Amino acid sequence: IGNSSVLSCPLNPNITLLTWKISPKVGGPCNLGYRADTDTTGRTNCSDSMNWKFRPDLGLALEIQQVGIAQEGNYTCEVVTPDGNFHWTYHLTVLVPPRLSLYCDDRGRPVCEAAAGKPPARVSWLLESNSSLEEERHSNGTVTVLSRLAARSTNVTDTTCMVFHPAGNWSESIAC
Question: Per-residue pLDDT tens for 96-136?
Fold first, then answer.
């Protein structure tokens, strides 16, 4: 989330027409087109965050700037050449790293929260296993995972929460 993403069609020196057909999760479809004989581009219903990007190693690629959850969806590149028509489809999935917080509740129990991640984070405790787990799903597709230790060993002064997510892994320790 927030980064730029570049999707490319395989290079073909004999392109007649190239079209990106975009079906995002939020909002209506949009199209970007390139016509080789006139060296012109066009767009229909696409936001300013979607643009052509030309690089010799990528050819005519699609760049999505400031990727957000709304841009998730299917991106199909259609290429017309004298040899035929070719299609490549990407399914864009956006990762949202959770916000980690670790605190002591009013009963003195450690609570580990991985807020608003996509997909949901996995939360576990180092050296402790007696915990409860709650998930809260948000309308934007993110999920908050909350883990609360039910009991603590008397010989442990610090408790460490570990959060695992495709966007990264984190750990924090606390003494309640």
Answer: 999 999 999 998 889 999 999 999 999 999 987 789 999 99
Residues with Cβ within 8 Å of residue 31, at least 6 apart in sequence: 19, 20, 21, 22, 43, 44, 45, 46
Q: Where in the chain is the domain with CATH 2.60.40.10?
A: 5-92, 99-174
Looking at the whole model, is its pTM more than 0.85? no
CATH of the domain spanning 99-174:
2.60.40.10
Calpha distance 152→162 (Å, rounded): 16
Q: Does domain 5-92 have CATH number 3.40.50.300?
A: no
Report residue 173 as tokens. 């320790």
**What single-letter DSSP state applies at residue 3?**
S
Asked if residue 98 lies in contact with residue 114, where contact means CB atoms within 8 angstroms, the answer is: yes
CA gyration radius, the chain: 23
| Contact call for residues 35 and 94 (beta carbons, < 8 A) | no
